Amino acid sequence: MSVQCAKNTRNIALRLAYDGTNYHGWQEQSNLPTVAQTLRKAIEAVVGSRINLIGCGRTDTGVHAETYVANFQTSSSIPTDRIPYAINTKLPSDISVYEAAEVPLSFHSVFSSTKKEYTYVIYCNRVKNPFYHNRAMFYPKPLDIEIMRRAAAEFLGEHDFRAFRSVGSNVKTTVRTLFSFDVDVEGELVKLRVSANGFLYNMARTLVGTLLYVSEGKITPEDIRGIFESGERMNAGPTVPACGLYMTDVLYNIPVF
Amino acid sequence: MSVQCAKNTRNIALRLAYDGTNYHGWQEQSNLPTVAQTLRKAIEAVVGSRINLIGCGRTDTGVHAETYVANFQTSSSIPTDRIPYAINTKLPSDISVYEAAEVPLSFHSVFSSTKKEYTYVIYCNRVKNPFYHNRAMFYPKPLDIEIMRRAAAEFLGEHDFRAFRSVGSNVKTTVRTLFSFDVDVEGELVKLRVSANGFLYNMARTLVGTLLYVSEGKITPEDIRGIFESGERMNAGPTVPACGLYMTDVLYNIPVF
């Protein structure tokens, strides 16, 4: 007999967005405001007990999310469709829960993910725009979009990305598979959208910095193969500022939302 | 003989943008941060002497400008095309000067203007979006765009707008001419773009509030003629929040930019 009651443990996945400007990244840290800590406290106020909140990735200080997925287990009987509204009443205006879904107990925001997408936004104009402060990288020179697209194609497929990450987190392997890397122009905004089965620490920002190096003529698209082979971080482009980076999609091995 | 020299007085017009969130409006006030005061001090640091800064309108606390025009007279010899860059180095990131132009000494940012445009941005969705906090009005119910467009058309042309303003500034006449009032849908954003030969205090926000009343069925488009005739502020819709309002264009009796 299977009866849904208050004592049953449910696994709840949340789809949320946040402006990361005022947070020291996603992951909880003692004495520093983080998105995870702020969201966890809001959820605990709603469900009435301590929870363990699992986020789909450790975004850095100042990085944003248009789409982020987190999950937690609870025995609260609150109807799933009421959860976003209940949590949002406890959240500041720079974090918002869009949707909640009950998922199998085996679902894990990191380990169940099959694909993540980040979008890097560059405001490309002679002078700064106040509305993109903290929301985009300011770049005051024209960009060579065509050569950036040729360089982006060099990253597609399975590679050892150890030359394109910052050291600072333990991972079993530095091999990742890039599914897409698109360079789109929308007026004065240039959006670099990259999807992969996973990202190493600072990898998305290093890939973007390397495309900027290509646009600036410091390296050619043909040099990228050699940077992969060297495995040397110093051969790749710089890590671009956090404020331009947005997590924009996460896909899972089951339909969640 | 006409020689341009340092002692010659020039009249300089600036095209700028600002995020009004952190300012008590445009107009200078003692002991409160305003856009005019912040910009004036930046200009004075560049030209090396006191100036009188004239802005094209008194935007309220929290109101933004994508396009705003101000002018000042100076005997500084700084080349006009260097002025935006020089001023921007002295400005915080929420104000940015895009362009400078030398205009006739008779040019006045308010009195020479022939047309102004405001755009009101509504974020229309079930839950809030962190990226539109302080940048749009949050409206959690569907809007009836077609009836709002019918109502907007009732405002076009020359009318006495005294029912659609807040009392609080001295004006010779409350008659204004509306040139356009468009309701556009861009995804989850509804943009109400209104242009006129001038706006009374809170007039743009009251016109938007009245369109929301129409969408909510509280009044009909046909009622608007009667509200004009009554001249009574209480018959119109509410003054919507400042954060959704943007000055988006100003035109003059001469080409400036």
Condensed summary:
The structure is a homodimer of 257-residue chains. The first copy, chain A, has 257 residues and is an alpha+beta fold.
Q: Report the CATH C-level class of the largest domain in chain A.
A: Alpha Beta
Please tally the helical runs of chain A, counting DSSP H or I stretches of 4 or more residues: 5
The name CATH uses for the topology of the largest domain in chain A is Alpha-Beta Plaits
The assembly state of the depicted protein chains is homodimer
- What is the mean pLDDT of chain A? 95
Could you walk me through the main structural features you see in this protein, from its secondary elements to its overall organization?
The structure is a homodimer of 257-residue chains. The first copy, chain A, has 257 residues and is α+β, with helices and mostly antiparallel strands. Chain A has 2 domains: 10-111, Pseudouridine synthase I, catalytic domain, N-terminal subdomain (Alpha-Beta Plaits, 2-Layer Sandwich), CATH 3.30.70.580; 115-250, Pseudouridine synthase I, catalytic domain, C-terminal subdomain (Alpha-Beta Plaits, 2-Layer Sandwich). Chain A has 5 helices and 10 strands, in the order E-H-E-E-H-E-E-E-H-E-E-E-H-H-E. Chain A has helices at 35-47, 83-88, 145-153, 203-215, 223-230; strands spanning 10-18, 54-55, 64-74, 95-103, 113-124, 137-139, 157-160, 175-186, 189-196, 245-252. In chain A, strands 1, 2, 3, 4, 5, 6, 7, 8, 9 and 10 form a 10-stranded mixed sheet that branches. In chain A, a hairpin with an 8-residue loop joins strand 2 (54-55) and strand 3 (64-74). In chain A, helix 3 (145-153) crosses helix 4 (203-215). Chain A is globular. Chain A starts with 9 loop residues before the first strand and ends in a 5-residue tail after the last strand. The relative contact order of chain A is 0.19. The model of chain A is unreliable at 1-6 (pLDDT under 50). Chain A binds chain B through residues 17-19, 64, 66, 84-85, 88, 93-98, 127-131, 133-135, and chain B through 17-19, 64, 66, 84-85, 88, 93-98, 127-131, 133-135.
